[in-house]
Amino acid sequence: MAGSGWDDERLIETNDDTASALQIAMNTNGNALVIWEHSDSTLSKSIWAARYVAGNGWSTTKLITDIGGGTYSTRPEIAVDDIGNALAVWRQYDGLLFSFWASHYEADSSWSTAESISDYRWESPGVTQYASPQIILDNNGDALAVWGHLFAGPSEGILASRYEAGNGWSTAELIMGGAVSGRPQIILEANGNALAIWGLYDGTNGGIWANRYEVGSGWDKVKFISSGEGSGRWWPQIAQNADGNAFAVWVQNVGPRLDIWANQIGRAHV
């Protein structure tokens, strides 16, 4: 608590099975939503959530995926706005194919029925550590989700979909493909615009790429933002200030070393 330090811990999930991969998002009113991956004795993995309301505490847990035994819902991500609305996205396996799904939380209400947000689906688990979603949500209730997607064979791409309050999700679009790419990160800019970065490996060299989304015009052209010695560039992260200037950082493989590199990205340059 501000000004008084940490409170006593609270138990908010009491199932007997395994919880992991939890994520939390909080708004300026002090309310929060936590989401996690739950594994039960049948080896199913489902997505659960709990809500914290300032002054009232934690709600009971809520199952937001409804799938049968032997299926998987993994790698959840969540974003909330200042009104208390939220969007959750995750990767889902139905016993045959992998795809990406989402659910919307209406402030002081309930979670919507989960829905697929991409027609791109794939069979092989492949390099599943790359295929994880990220999401941002503005205070108009609009959102952007990005994720790495595994196609047939070794190639992967970065896909994106926009959620518009009242209208739902747009058709997912490929914003870069043709190589192993993944671990995208995305940040919210002013007026609902966004900036995304990700790593890419073409079989010989790795690189960090970026693209800006502008409301009304969509995604711009991708820009290469890493260079220098070494072949592998991985695990990018990004942060931005109110003036639109951003820093991207990543791990870069230089011979036997793994170094940390950075690049400053001005609004006019991406």
Structural summary, described in words:
- The protein is mainly beta and 270 residues long.
- Helix content is 0%, strand content 54%.
- It contains no helices and 21 strands.
- The chain has strands at residues 18-26, 32-39, 45-53, 57-58, 62-63, 72-80, 86-93, 98-105, 115-116, 133-137, 143-150, 156-164, 168-169, 173-188, 194-201, 206-214, 218-219, 223-224, 232-240, 246-254, 257-265.
- Strands 10, 11, 12, 13, 14, 15, 16, 17 and 18 form a nine-stranded antiparallel sheet that branches.
- It is globular and about 50 Å long.
- The mean pLDDT is 81.
Instruction: Give the proportion of residues in helices.
Output: under 10%
Uncertain residue ranges: none
Number of helices: 0
Coarse structural class: mainly beta
Oligomer kind: single chain
Average pLDDT, all residues:
81
Order of helices and strands: EEEEEEEEEEEEEEEEEEEEE
Proportion of beta-strand residues: over 45%
Shape descriptor: globular
Task: Summarize this structure as a short list of keywords or feature phrases.
about 270 residues, mainly beta, 9-stranded antiparallel sheet, 5-stranded antiparallel sheet, 21 strands, about 55% strand, globular
In terms of topology, how is this protein built?
Layout (H helix, E strand, L loop, with lengths): L17 E9 L5 E8 L5 E9 L3 E2 L3 E2 L8 E9 L5 E8 L4 E8 L9 E2 L16 E5 L5 E8 L5 E9 L3 E2 L3 E16 L5 E8 L4 E9 L3 E2 L3 E2 L7 E9 L5 E9 L2 E9 L5
Antiparallel strand pairs: 1-2, 2-3, 3-4, 3-5, 6-7, 7-8, 8-9, 10-11, 11-12, 12-13, 12-14, 14-15, 15-16, 16-17, 16-18, 19-20, 20-21
